[in-house]
Amino acid sequence: MTEITLNNITFGYNAEMVLNNISLTVKQGEFVVAVGPNGAGKSTLLKIIAGLIEPSAGQVLIDNQSIRTAARQGIIGYVPQHYAQNTAAFPATVEEVVALGLVNANGNLKAKGTKHIIKHMMEMVGIEKLKGRRIGELSGGQQQRVMVARALAGNPRLLLLDEPTSGIDYAASARIHELLGQLNTTLGITIIMVSHDIENAIRFAAKVACINRSLCFFGDSQEFHSTHASMRHLWYYSGYTS
Ligand SMILES: Nc1ncnc2c1ncn2[C@@H]1O[C@H](COP(=O)(O)OP(=O)(O)OP(=O)(O)O)[C@@H](O)[C@H]1O
């Protein structure tokens, strides 16, 4: 069971207030997509859920435990924004990058049977044929699959992804979203993903958290799609922020 509760999360970088009093609960096995305009605070919120940033006020609870305890237990897999692109020049093979996901917070290998786990994760995301290739030689979509496999290798119960499809084409984005949908249903992993590709995301994510410094909407993705179309239109086609 992995339930994430945000209680009145507030945060600012120096004087700039970025997140204002955000409260929500993500239940075990839910797939939530966080949407909103540029600079709305989505990445910041994801970093707070991952335990990388301390909120100025409020708390994150994972299964009623503090985020620090959850992070120590290694139950969180986090794929940061632009991570694949940033590591592309790293002279490592796909297999080696996935293996990094088995290194725990203390810098030790997390589990026995590592070769088997790495193979299994590569198969799961469909990159086994690429295992000997340098990460920098792959397409953006292939690199993102490697990053998902790396996060999965740590056997997370909660997967956090920050724009995993940024910079890749619509068809590749659709395939990554589909993969995440499959992982969510087959493994029961709770997923929170920031995405600008709402159309693809809501095909697989049952819930939407719409953030614009505060929480504008949290609920069923189809409801968001039908009732908030005009709001989405404003954001994405005129650069509107409130
Ligand atoms: N490390 C930082 N130091 C200072 N300000 C920051 C930092 N990171 C982000 N910000 C600011 O906080 C605000 C929210 O940024 P954040 O990256 O969380 O938004 P976002 O919703 O993820 O945006 P995008 O969709 O463009 O990625 C922005 O105004 C940004 O400039």
TrEMBL record:
Pfam family of the protein (one): ABC_tran
InterPro entries named in the record: AAA+_ATPase, ABC_transporter-like_ATP-bd, ABC_transporter-like_CS, Metal_Ion_Import_ABC, P-loop_NTPase
Keywords: ATP-binding, Nucleotide-binding, Transport
Classification via PROSITE patterns: ABC_TRANSPORTER_1, ABC_TRANSPORTER_2
SUPFAM superfamilies given in the database record: P-loop containing nucleoside triphosphate hydrolases
CDD domains named in the record: ABC_Metallic_Cations (cd03235)
Transmembrane segments: none
Gene Ontology molecular function terms on file: ATP binding; ATP hydrolysis activity
Domain ABC transporter, residue spans: 4-237
Highest taxon, organism lineage: Bacteria
Coiled-coil blocks: none
Keyword ATP-binding: yes
Record-linked PANTHER family: METAL TRANSPORT SYSTEM ATP-BINDING PROTEIN TM_0124-RELATED
Family: Belongs to the ABC transporter superfamily.
Protein name (record): Zinc transport system ATP-binding protein
